[in-house]
Inverse folding.
């Protein structure tokens, strides 16, 4: 057996029966970072430029799958040493793949533990998205060796100092190691969950009071991780990259081997930059939510007014200090200012007049560096739509215009007709992050439209199929030698989306390739990046009287030892349109064949037809589910994935009634947020059903 702890072994004794290991004494560190791992392991090893031994441990015969994480780990330690101005402080770093592990990873000092899916990568059977996940998670956990381990939060109220900074820094590292992945553009898609969560009445500030240990797990959420990372990015953009890096190095040196709170970081940043950082950032960390800025131009004057953005439409009095960036017709005319009040006017007559042409447009929040939304008046929105169509906006700004319009539509501040008309401008989009968001929008819109306007659902689906056809034809099913990482990831996303939308050609090709792969597991017959698309397509074709495809997927699940492949299959199993098959898939999640850490992955694939089945299943199995998962972080996933998609007030009332005597502190906030999502969906569905122009718009868009 191999035994590991935070520090290296300094003595080993064996008396013929028992092996006794003694470890080097650790430096001062928090008790939650102490770790011991014992098991049968193989490992791969390398050294940093400072001679620090880095190892990746995994199950026997899987060591080759640890080589990519090892390479990332070694390079990341060297990168962080330079960026933070402080070297890694322990003599070794071990990273261990744990087969059963509820969390994604845990940053134990010098002994980081991971799910297998977050650390191992198989060159032949892992998808490009798996490779990226390994890089980002490793960079995140190693960032904690400085932010969290070397300098530790004073109390859980300041959790975001650990998680927000580690998330932000992980993108900084991965961008340095793999610039072709464009992870800062992808960052916008990853942090959208924070904007979604923080638009709820039941959100919470970045800094949230924790009064009991049972409350801690609920703040390990998109607000602490992703909103925290986003406001850090916003602050870095405002202060400048060099000043920000210099300040972080000073902060770490000052608080090494001790505790710090948010105000300590602001004080160092203020001293280094001379800017009112504390005043600026308190409005982002101490109050929940974020603003939407209403913007228009009148007679050469730009008028900007902020109000809190809430999906429910509730009135709140939040007010923020907002670093505003904007440009006029080109990125050469970029301006910035600090919005300090509810509204502000800016004289832009000269810029407007000199830029005025058929290519003129105004874009606020340039490259989406600010944590806020923008609602343009009709004239400015039309100009941006033209700019998108003529490819004048950066990918980040195209993403931002789409995301703001989608969220404003969900909040009933803009019509679905407006959103779909805007999306028609993206018909030749090729950028990974923009396209994947278009896919997410299409899935949400179709889900709500099924309740709101059933007669138009087929037309709406066809519109989205037409939008994705350009990329599907460009990418095809087979990888090309000249393509990059992002095309590999995009192929799977686009084909999976087309299968879910019911595109006949995609489903037929997917099923043909699946059966060839079933007979011969050669990865060339069904490359890893397209397997999810094939698995989802197969599930679209089966029903309770013909479950051959379902059984075939279970066969692959049982025969593979690759965790990523197992999760890919679990993801697809419940995506059938047949309620009987969906119930079989859900029951399989509770069987001994599925690791308890992985069961929630099967809830992600549930479609509209399986929604009621899943809710009944959750109620009937609640006692068992709460017994197995109720004291850990995963119970929230069961509640969120099954409850949040509904879109009726009656179902919201039913959910409240069911959980009235069953809620506990580990998921009480999540339950409130999920029920709020149901009520917001109901409000949105009602708004869509009253959109008088939707039928005419759909006829026009599908005709084109």
């Amino acid at each position: 057996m191999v035994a590991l702890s935070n520090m290296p072994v300094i003595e080993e004794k064996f008396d013929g029966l028992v092996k006794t290991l003694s470890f080097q004494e650790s430096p001062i560190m928090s008790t939650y970072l102490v770790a011991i791992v014992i098991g049968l392991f193989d490992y791969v090893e390398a050294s940093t430029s400072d001679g620090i031994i880095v190892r990746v441990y995994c199950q026997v015969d899987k060591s080759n799958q640890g080589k990519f994480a090892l390479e990332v780990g070694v390079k990341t330690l060297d990168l962080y040493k330079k960026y933070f101005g402080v070297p890694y402080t322990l003599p070794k770093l071990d990273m261990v793949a744990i087969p059963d592990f509820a969390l994604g990873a845990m940053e134990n000092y010098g002994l980081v533990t991971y799910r297998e899916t977050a650390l191992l990568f198989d060159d032949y059977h892992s998808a490009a998205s798996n490779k990226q996940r390994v890089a980002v998670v490793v960079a995140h956990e190693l960032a904690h060796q400085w932010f969290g381990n070397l300098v530790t939060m004073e109390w859980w109220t300041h959790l975001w100092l650990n998680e927000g900074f580690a998330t932000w820094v992980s993108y900084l590292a991965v961008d340095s190691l793999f610039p072709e992945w464009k992870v800062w553009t992808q960052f916008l898609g990853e942090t959208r969950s924070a904007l979604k969560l923080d638009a709820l009445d039941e959100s919470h500030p970045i800094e949230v009071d924790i009064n009991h240990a049972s409350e801690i797990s609920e703040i390990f959420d998109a607000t602490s991780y992703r909103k925290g990372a986003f406001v850090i990015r916003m602050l870095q953009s405002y202060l400048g990259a060099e000043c920000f890096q210099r300040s972080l190095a000073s902060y770490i040196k000052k608080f090494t081997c001790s505790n710090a709170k948010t105000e300590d970081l602001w004080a160092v940043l203020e001293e280094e930059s001379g800017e009112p950082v504390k005043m600026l950032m308190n409005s982002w960390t101490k109050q929940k939510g974020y603003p939407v800025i209403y913007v228009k131009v009148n007679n050469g004057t730009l008028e900007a007014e902020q109000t809190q953005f809430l999906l429910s439409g509730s009135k709140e009095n939040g007010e923020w200090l907002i670093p505003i960036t904007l440009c006029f017709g080109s990125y050469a005319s970029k301006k910035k200012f600090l919005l300090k009040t509810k509204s502000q006017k800016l004289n832009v007559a000269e810029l407007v007049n000199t830029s005025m042409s058929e290519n003129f447009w105004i874009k606020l929040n340039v490259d989406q560096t600010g944590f806020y939304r923008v609602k343009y008046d009709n004239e400015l929105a039309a100009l941006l739509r033209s700019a998108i169509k003529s490819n004048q906006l950066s990918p980040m700004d195209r993403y931002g215009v789409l995301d703001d319009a989608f969220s404003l539509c969900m909040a009933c501040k803009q019509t679905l007709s407006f959103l779909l008309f805007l999306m028609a401008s993206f018909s030749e989009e090729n950028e990974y992050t923009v396209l994947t968001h278009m896919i997410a929008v299409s899935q949400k819109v179709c889900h709500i439209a099924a309740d709101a306007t059933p007669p138009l659902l087929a037309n709406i689906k066809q519109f989205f199929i037409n939008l994705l056809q350009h990329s599907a034809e460009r990418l095809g099913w087979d990888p090309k030698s000249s393509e990059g990482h992002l095309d590999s990831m995009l192929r799977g996303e686009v084909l999976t989306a087309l299968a879910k939308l019911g595109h006949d050609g995609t489903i037929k090709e997917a099923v043909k390739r699946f059966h060839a792969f079933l007979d011969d597991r050669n990865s060339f017959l069904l490359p890893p990046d397209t397997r999810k698309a094939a698995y989802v397509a197969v599930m679209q074709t089966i029903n309770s009287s013909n479950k051959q495809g379902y059984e075939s997927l279970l066969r692959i699940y049982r025969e593979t030892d690759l965790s990523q492949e197992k999760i890919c299959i679990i993801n697809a199993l419940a995506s059938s349109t047949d309620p009987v098959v969906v119930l079989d898939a859900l029951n399989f999640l509770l069987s001994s064949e599925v690791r308890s850490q992985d069961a929630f992955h099967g809830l992600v694939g549930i479609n509209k037809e399986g929604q009621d089945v899943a809710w009944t299943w959750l109620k009937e199995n609640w006692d068992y589910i709460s017994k197995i998962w109720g004291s850990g972080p995963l119970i929230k996933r069961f509640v969120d994935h099954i409850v949040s998609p509904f879109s009726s007030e009656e179902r919201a009332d039913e959910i409240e009634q069911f959980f009235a005597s069953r809620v506990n502190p580990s998921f009480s906030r999540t339950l409130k947020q999920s029920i709020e999502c149901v009520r917001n969906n109901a409000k949105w569905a009602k708004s869509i059903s009253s959109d008088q122009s939707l039928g005419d718009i759909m006829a026009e868009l599908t005709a084109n």
Summary: Residues 53 and 92 are 5 Å apart (CA to CA). The mean pLDDT is 93.
